[in-house]
Amino acid sequence: MNRNHFLKTTLLSGLALTYLPLNSFSLIQEKFTKNQLIGKGNPDIIGDTYTSKMHKEAKIAFEEMKVAALKDGINIEVVSAYRNFQKQKSIFENKYKRFTKERLTPIEAVEKIIEYSTIPGTSRHHWGTDIDIIDANYPKPESVLEEENYYGNGPYCKLKEWMNEHSESYGFYEVYTKSPNRKGFKYEPWHFSYAPVSISMLKAYQKLDIKSILKEENVLGNENFSEEFINTYKTENILDINPKLL
Asked: Which is deepest, 50, 102, 188, 191, by most CB within 10 Å?
């Protein structure tokens, strides 16, 4: 997808939505099942490995962006793409067990986890639209996804500069920006989302009863998730993102 194609597609989509009756928005959102939205099965996901699985539309756009970046000497490598519910549950619960063993209270453990990691069933990576990226031209540092790697003399600073200039032309937008007013997850200069799909998935996702889902799935520590906690988490961690992705 080149810039002209992306802009044309976005314009036509916007015009189409302008002439849809209001009740058509619910029809758009209903095309996603609960399981798709929480990472428990999605027929639109393609790819064979943890780093290659993506939503089919995001995959096409990513490959075109990768080719363009290569021409400029940037070798975009995905280190995390589609992540299913069980994978996220394992990540979350392992951290939860570790932190509570370190004598943090259950809610303190959760608060520490959600500085960077999501609660299972709430990750944007469940949709196959989001990617974490590095520049494969450089040896991987001991800790890859760190802010310092994307600025100054960091190995991925040229990648970040290229993405700042070109990524939106391919539909990819930084999710957790460096805005001083943003709350929720800490800044992630490596995390980008394919907007043409993720925007509509987020709209559909907001209709889900997250508290009930976490209880149904028996996520470790879910008994500590009050209505107030869930509402704050939704406001700050799920919705306080790059405004262009809302």
From this structure: 191
Helix (H, G, I), strand (E, B) or coil at 133: strand
pTM for the full predicted model: 0.86
Tokens of 111: 């608060």
Three-state DSSP state, 183: coil
Give 3-7+29-245's CATH code, choosing from 3.30.230.10, 3.10.310.10, 2.40.70.10, 3.30.1380.10.
3.30.1380.10
d(CA 226, CA 185): 19
pLDDT tens-digit profile of 161-206? 999 999 999 999 999 999 999 999 999 999 999 999 999 999 999 9
Task: Kindly report the length of the chain.
Answer: 246
Question: How far is Cα 205 from Cα 25, in angstroms, rounded to an integer?
Answer: 13
- Identify the helix (H) or strand (E) that includes residue 102: none
List the chain domain ranges. 3-7+29-245
Cβ count near 246 (within 10 Å): 11
**DSSP conformation class of 236:** I
* Cβ pair 74, 108 in contact under 8 A: no
DSSP H or E stretch at residue 16: helix 3-18
* Residue reference for tokens 């976490």: 214
